[in-house]
Amino acid sequence: MAEDYSYVKCPQCGYDRNPMNASKCEVCGYRLKKGTPIVPIVATLAGIALLGGGGYWFLSQLGRQSAPPVASTSPDPAAPGTSPVPSPVASPETSPTPGLPPVAPPSSRSGITIVSRLADVPNVPQGTFNYGNSTTFAPLRSQRINEAISRAHPNFRLRYVEPPGGKPGSGAGIEMLIQGQLAIGQSSRPLKDAEFRRAETRGFRLEQVPIANDALAIYVHPGLQIRGLAVQQVRDIFTGKVTNWQQVGGPNLPVVPFSRNLRAGGTVDFFKEDVLLGENLGVNVRETRDTTDSLRKVGSTPGGIGYATVAEVVRQEMVRILPLSREKGGAFVAPDLGGQEVNLQVLTNASYPITRRLFVIIRRDGGLDEQAGVAYANLFLSDEGQQLVKEAGFAPLRQ
Predict the structure, then answer these.
(1) Which burial class, exposed, middle or buried, applies to 225 when counting CB atoms under 10 A from its CB (0-12, 13-18, 19+)?
(2) How far apart are CA 334 and CA 314, in angstroms?
(3) Could you tell me how far CA 293 lies from the centroid of its own chain?
(4) Is the terminal CB of the chain with fewer CB neighbours within 10 Å at N or C?
(5) In this predicted structure, what is the pLDDT of residue 50?
């Protein structure tokens, strides 16, 4: 039976790019439980306007206006790649957590806006601002991108900060944001209910703003002879049900899966929830520190298999990216083009089975950190910023 790819609107934030079979809203994280009334797609993105001769798209559906960007010169874990994204919508101003008292939408200070150039982004604060920790964002923290931001706003400086435990990731970064150790968060997964609650108990709100589309690549040792895998087979491999490649059409060779700690980052969190469907990793899965470590270990281990954002894996000759199918017997779709660049088309139209969004997390505390977070999001949502997103190996939200 063909899968339904029509879209529905989230009853919490109004975002209308949630697939009919989604369990939670991909923008605000609201859980789309069975029985929750879901309104079919209507033309609700009311903020499309043309300014002057330049065609600027406005994310005003959810009550956002303008804000400032952030520049950085500090080094941080790098990675290659590119990926696509559907229509741009800003995150909700009210808490998406059911049962929490609603927060009045502060549209006057929301600050999310779309401009043409990085230099056009308004209200960019002066100073040095800590940011991180998502490893998926590494290509968006490259020297080239930081220098472009710095040229546009010389007094807006970004500083990458490692988590105290030394294991970077979306979850670690969000916790550091809540604790006040970061000014700007980066996440490859939506915020969780508990994170919204913890921020509110500390007197401020968290807000997630999507800036790009991404996909997870499944990669193996380059010498492994296997055409591709179904998502179910990937699940069986990482939960320990499949232990020999012969079980999935490959050679008689032990499967050696590698993964970062499930508590470390947004990528592994997303992998557990959306690929493993909440199951734990198998006892045979070997832990790695980060994507670089995983690539090295998979590339030196016959039978090795790992996963990471496709932007970090393309052009890595030490491993081979596998095409995936949604179900056994289905057509294989590759997230890359010959291992040299990301296939933006299959990320944008979601024909590749494992796609997701990347978010800038804003600390809504009414201070400089909030101003910096809004500016940083606006930098990447600008026309020039979306081009930088594309060049970094991710799919821009606006085509």
Answers:
(1) exposed
(2) 11
(3) 20
(4) N
(5) 34
Q: In the block, which residue shows the tokens 């804003």?
A: 362
Q: With beta carbons less than 8 A apart as the criterion, state whether 170 and 263 touch.
A: no
Evaluate whether 218 touches 312 at the Cβ level (below 8 Å).
no
- For 127, the enclosing helix (H) or strand (E) is strand 127-133
Two tokens, residue 338? 């010959």
- 10-residue block means of pLDDT along the chain (399 residues)? 43 50 54 44 34 37 36 38 34 36 42 96 97 90 96 97 83 94 95 96 96 96 97 98 97 97 82 94 93 95 96 94 96 94 92 95 96 98 96 88
Cα–chain-centroid distance for residue 286? 24
Q: What's the CA gap between 214 and 210, in Å, rounded?
A: 11
Residue 296: in which H helix or E strand, if any? helix 291-299
Residues in the chain: 399
Peptide bond into 280 cis (omega under 30): no
| Apex 125 CA angle, 124 and 126, nearest 5 | 125
Instruction: Please list the residues that pair with 237 across neighbouring strands.
Output: none
Amino acid at 326: R
Q: Which has the closest alpha carbon to 45: 6, 7, 13, 89?
A: 89
* Contact (CB, 8 A) for 28 and 96: yes
Q: What is the pLDDT of residue 297?
A: 98
- Which uninterrupted H or E stretch holds 302? none
